[in-house]
Design a protein that fits this description.
With 147 residues, the chain is mainly alpha-helical. Helices cover 55% and strands 7% of the residues. This is Large conductance mechanosensitive channel.
Length: 147
């Protein structure tokens, strides 16, 4: 039983995913610090420096629980965009390149799709003979194009 677990954990793709997760968590911390300590102060300063942030007070003045903090939301959106760009350009692109050199295609682009006339699902590959959702026979790809 332990040998099976060891074989599972030591597979190449599991190790790759684990390393990518560790790198992503480290980058997440770095990007969070950037948005908290660089972006948020810039937003606050742009409002004149006396404001608690970019947003609106919905209740009694000075009550943080009724403050609609749009600056924190903007910071979170910026954090997400930066984080996804970093993950894509520093993890996904190099991984695709390395795997392509090994002859393995990962994250391949989806081919042309067609719509099932019976159930109207739109995610069938053009060469499919049967619908994966309702099981109806599909016309051949050449006949579907001419129809």
């Amino acid at each position: 039983m332990l040998k099976g677990l060891k074989n599972f954990v030591m597979r190449g793709d599991i190790v790759t995913v684990a390393v990518a997760l560790i790198i992503a968590l480290a980058l997440s911390t770095l990007i969070k610090a950037f948005t908290d300590f660089v972006v948020n102060p810039v937003i606050t300063r742009a409002q004149g420096g006396r404001s608690v942030g970019l947003g609106w007070q919905l209740g009694r003045a000075g009550n943080r629980s009724t403050y609609l903090d749009a600056g924190a939301f903007l910071s979170a959106v910026l954090y997400f965009l930066i984080f996804m760009a970093v993950v894509y350009f520093f993890i996904v692109v190099p991984y695709k390149h390395i795997q392509a050199r090994r002859g393995v295609v990962v994250f391949k682009e989806q081919g042309p799709l067609k719509t099932c006339p019976a159930c109207l699902s739109e995610d069938l590959p053009e060469a499919a003979y049967k619908c994966r959702h309702c099981g109806t026979e599909q016309p051949p790809a050449a006949a579907a194009r001419t129809a």
